[in-house]
Amino acid sequence: MKLTNFPRVHITHGPTPLEFMPRLTEALGGPNLYIKRDDCTGLGSGGNKTRKLEFLMADAVKHGADTIITQGATQSNHARQTVAIAAKMGMKCEILLEDRTGFKDASYKKSGNVFLDHLYGAGVRELPGGTDMNAAMATVAEELRAAGRKPYIIPGGGSNPIGALGYVTCALEMVNQFNTQDLRVDCVVHATGSAGTQAGLVVGLEGTRSLIPVLGIGVRAAKEAQETNVYNLAVKTAELLGVPGCVRRESVMANCDYVGGGYGVPTPGMVEAVTMVARLEGILLDPVYSGKGMAGLIDLCRKGHFKKGENVVFLHTGGAVALYGYMDAFGDLKPL
Ligand SMILES: *Cc1c(COP(=O)(O)O)cnc(C)c1O
Question: Cα–Cα distances in Å, from 142 out to 23, 69, 83, 137?
């Protein structure tokens, strides 16, 4: 696997820490719980899109782009991180935000990631839920080309084979940390959405024959669709990397029982998970992704799916900025 074959902008603050979570482990009484801190990747308050953007932005430069176009939900972390890196690299950025939740409160519409999008200087276009976002981005690209600009489109979540290379690098980084810290890992768990993170991890962990399984906790699609999306992207990523055939279908596993009412819609499990991890470990999760991912991990520990003595690593993909857009979901927080 030769990642140096691909142009890359090195901006990730890494290796990101791998930490034990003693108080959460004790509270649940199940496996030893570790956390890989990809919320600390740097770039506009951090998160998993930093690693993808290293490869995507280098590709944009290679194509002579001067403007980045991307899309996401209103409180998209991906959009916010893309705007931040565009600012850093002296490019313009147009983001298209889809109203996937219909939430009307000012904190959701204006605070959190949306405030940062404007602060970093993006052109922000709001579109109704159900819009064909890829078609909408193509239209914006046409407009920009007509005005003499050179647009480069990054898909939602930065999830294409180039972006997924970022999570191949994370897989290699983790395997190295596990080996040097003598940590025998039974499973890596994380929130899975647009599929690039899980696809990259699976390619990295399978391609190195690490024998470490990955479990994605879904935040939007149903299990079958999510696993298919991840698998298809993993296959293409492996081909791009020159290791075709390294991904087995059985190694792509998603559990989509924790989505609740839909993408970005709070669940009681998410509120419990975010509050527990804040109060036991001082770590901020997010309401859309890592909060639901952790809700899944907590439930699976309680059900005995993961057992005492096993070592489980939760990959923290970031997103805490969105908490400011979701304060209402937490109601009146009582002191401990
Ligand atoms: C985008 C995102 C994810 C999901 O990653 P995908 O590569 O889209 O599956 C998880 N957590 C956070 C905080 C994100 O912003």
Answer: 53, 11, 20, 9
Instruction: For residue 211, count CB atoms less than 10 angstroms from its CB and return exposed for 0-12, middle for 13-18, buried for 19 or more.
Output: exposed
Cα 48 to ligand 1 centroid, rounded to whole Å: 6
How many CB atoms within 10 Å of residue 239? Answer: 15
pTM: 0.98
DSSP 219: S
Q: Tell me what percent of the residues of the chain surpass a pLDDT of 70.
A: 100
Burial state string for 6-36 with b = 16 or more CB within 10 A and e = fewer than 16: bebbebbebebebeebeebbebbebbbbbbb
**pLDDT tens track for 230-267:** 999 999 999 999 999 999 999 999 999 999 999 999 99
Q: Residue 82 and residue 70: Cα distance in Å, rounded?
A: 8
Please state whether 255 falls in left (phi above 0), alpha (psi between -120 and 50) or beta.
beta
Residue carrying structure tokens 């991906």: 78
Residue from 100, 154, 226, 289 whose mutation best tests the ligand 1 pocket (most atoms within 8 A of CB): 289
Taking CA atoms only, the protein residue closest to ligand 1 atom 8 is 194
CA 63 / ligand 1 centre spacing (Å): 26
Phi-psi region of 146 (alpha: psi -120 to 50; beta: other; left: phi over 0): alpha
Tokens standing for residue 333: 């927080």
Reply yes or no on whether 76 is catalytic.
yes
- Please give the span between the terminal C-alpha atoms of the chain, in angstroms, as a whole number: 49
Alpha helices in the chain (DSSP H): 22-28, 49-62, 77-88, 106-110, 113-119, 133-146, 161-180, 196-207, 223-241, 268-281, 290-302
